[in-house]
């Protein structure tokens, strides 16, 4: 029963943050509403932790389960790929070239910059 | 109503099966989302089911896409101590990584002669799926192509990222039989690189063997998502006009 209440608390907070994110987006349309919601959710959790109104233990179990299966919500939209079979046959090689070149360029640049800026710096 | 139960239920069963397979064999290539897409598309091809038929029953799952992005606030909150002490350096690295991803993908796709809507669908492939999709739609792209490109970015980094960084000499792993002993400095470099390029998929892959890297990686994936969502709507149309 306690677990179910914790899941319901997460659902309520996410809905609240998303709604506030939509309101914020109307006035400051810089980020998508969901990203505003994400930042608000992080702030809300920090506030809850600092004030002990919502201690971490309430979220550990539901969040671990949700984060494990979160990619399920992307299934329907990803299956939409089946509509682009011709495109893949026609340009699949080029698309893959762009994908791999970009990914390895970013990996290399981020690692090089991290070596310059972060190595030998402790955060404790 | 029967379509909702049939197609949403089928999606869930196939996803849980794919999750079980990945959990058993622990190979990045057996990513549950990739496996689920492959199985479902194969099934629909065999039984001659169109995407429109499928979406009549599964479209309600799309209402969960926005809450999924909001939930990413949790890993951000968990890593907030990293940001407090090193936020300037980590932010700068993520900003340059986001600019690099947008520049390389747009310019290369343009040079290869790909159409504008396809480029718009691809440029946000190095950030987490939910934000990548909304950024892609804002640019005039197609979210299902974006979702697959995100998998390309995630899987390639997950499978070859560590090997590649060792090959170019940016990290050194002293004991390959016990990855947990990898020095923190090496893990910082690895974590930032994987988080910037291969988002949550890469982070999940390295988490078990490189715990310090995973902390940096999850911070980087969130920051890169924010920077890309902010920059792409202005920067990509500019690059396309060059």
TrEMBL record, chain A:
Q: How does it sit in the membrane?
A: Multi-pass membrane protein
Against Pfam families, the record matches this protein to: LrgA (PF03788)
Q: Does the keyword Transmembrane apply?
A: yes
Transmembrane regions: 7-28, 34-54, 66-83, 95-113
Q: Which PANTHER family match?
A: HOLIN-LIKE PROTEIN CIDA-RELATED (PTHR33931), UPF0299 MEMBRANE PROTEIN YOHJ (PTHR33931:SF5)
Q: What name has this protein been given in UniProt?
A: CidA/LrgA family protein
Instruction: Tell me the keywords, alphabetical order.
Output: Cell membrane, Membrane, Transmembrane, Transmembrane helix
Q: What are the subcellular locations of this protein?
A: Cell membrane
TrEMBL record, chain B:
The keyword Transmembrane appears for this protein: yes
Topology in the lipid bilayer is annotated as: Multi-pass membrane protein
Which superkingdom does the taxonomy of this entry point to? Bacteria
Major location (coarse): membrane
Its annotated compartments are: Membrane
Keyword match Hydrolase: no
Query: Which InterPro entries does UniProt cross-reference here?
Result: CidB/LrgB
The UniProt keywords, alphabetically, are: Membrane, Transmembrane, Transmembrane helix
Spans through the membrane: 6-21, 28-48, 60-77, 89-108, 114-133, 145-169, 189-207, 219-240
The name this protein carries in UniProt is LrgB family protein
Provide the taxonomic classification: Bacteria, Pseudomonadati, Pseudomonadota, Gammaproteobacteria, Alteromonadales
């Amino acid at each position: 029963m306690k677990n179910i209440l914790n899941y319901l608390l997460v659902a309520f907070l996410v809905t609240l943050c998303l709604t506030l994110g939509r309101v914020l987006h109307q006035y400051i349309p810089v980020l998508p509403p969901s990203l505003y919601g994400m930042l608000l959710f992080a702030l809300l959790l920090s506030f809850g932790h600092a004030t002990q109104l919502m201690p971490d233990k309430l979220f550990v179990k539901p969040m671990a389960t949700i984060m494990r299966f979160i990619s399920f919500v992307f299934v329907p939209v990803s299956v939409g790929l089946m509509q682009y079979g011709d495109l893949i046959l026609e340009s699949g090689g080029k698309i893959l070239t762009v994908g791999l070149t970009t990914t390895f360029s970013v990996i290399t640049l981020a690692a090089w910059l991290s070596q310059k800026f972060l190595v030998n710096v402790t955060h404790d | 109503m029967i379509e909702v139960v049939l197609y949403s239920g089928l999606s869930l069963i196939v996803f849980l099966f794919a999750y079980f397979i990945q959990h058993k064999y622990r190979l990045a290539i057996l990513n549950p989302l990739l496996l689920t897409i492959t199985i479902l598309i194969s099934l629909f091809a065999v039984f001659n089911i169109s995407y429109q038929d499928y979406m009549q029953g599964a479209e309600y799952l799309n209402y969960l896409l926005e809450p999924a992005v909001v939930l990413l606030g949790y890993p951000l909150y968990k890593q907030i101590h990293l940001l407090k002490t090193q936020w300037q350096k980590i932010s700068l690295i993520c900003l340059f990584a986001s600019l690099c991803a947008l520049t390389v993908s747009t310019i290369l796709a343009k040079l290869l002669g790909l159409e504008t809507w396809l480029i718009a669908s691809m440029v946000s492939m190095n950030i987490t799926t939910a934000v990548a999709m909304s950024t892609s739609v804002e640019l005039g792209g197609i979210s299902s192509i974006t979702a697959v490109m995100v998998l390309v970015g995630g899987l390639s980094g997950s499978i070859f990222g560590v090997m590649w960084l060792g090959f170019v000499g940016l990290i050194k792993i002293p004991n390959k039989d016990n990855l947990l002993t990898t020095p923190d400095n090496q893990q910082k470099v690895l974590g930032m690189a994987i988080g910037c390029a291969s988002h949550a998929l890469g982070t999940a892959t390295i988490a078990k063997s490189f715990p310090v890297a995973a902390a940096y990686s999850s911070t980087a994936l969130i920051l890169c998502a924010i920077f890309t969502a902010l920059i792409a709507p202005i920067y990509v149309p500019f690059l396309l006009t060059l």
